[in-house]
Amino acid sequence: MTRDAVGRVPRRLRLELVAAGALLEQAGLILAGEGNLSARIDGAGFLITPRGRDKGRLDPGDLVVVPRWPADVPPAASSETQIHGAVYRLRAEVKAVVHAHPAAVQGLSQTGRVPDCSLLTEGGMLLGAVAWVPALPPGSAELAEATAHALAHGPACVLEQHGAVTVGGTVEQALLRMLVLERLAALTLENVRA
Fold it and tell me: pTM score > 0.70 for this model?
């Protein structure tokens, strides 16, 4: 991506990521500086939320352009930029990535389970099966590669002790998948406890 292209990141895309961050916070799927969201802006680059910032209170200008991954990652980019880059590298059709820490997903992961997609029609339609990634150090290349491979054939995975990641063809689709994943996790927990 050239410097000129960096300046031409569509404002619409910035607004979609800001709105998605606010919705994740309103839904209780992230707190404070948790989570990260990104959107592809060309074949090699993507737009990502900044490191350690409250995703519910971002301005469009706060988002960070990663022009080339892994060669050119700005220090202000999310600590999980490697996850996003690895997913975009493996899945050309993915245009957005959402990483959140939903409470029900995390609670369910403590039992070694993933959400049961058969509990909602939307689960089967939007998610299919949910992959599992064992506990790995946050921000590590190992976590990034394991997550990307877990998402190689599906749109959602649970990261043991570290939330979940969903992907989509749009920011809205990746966000909707995260919301449905959390609903399914809550329903699965109810069934486990029953």
Answer: yes
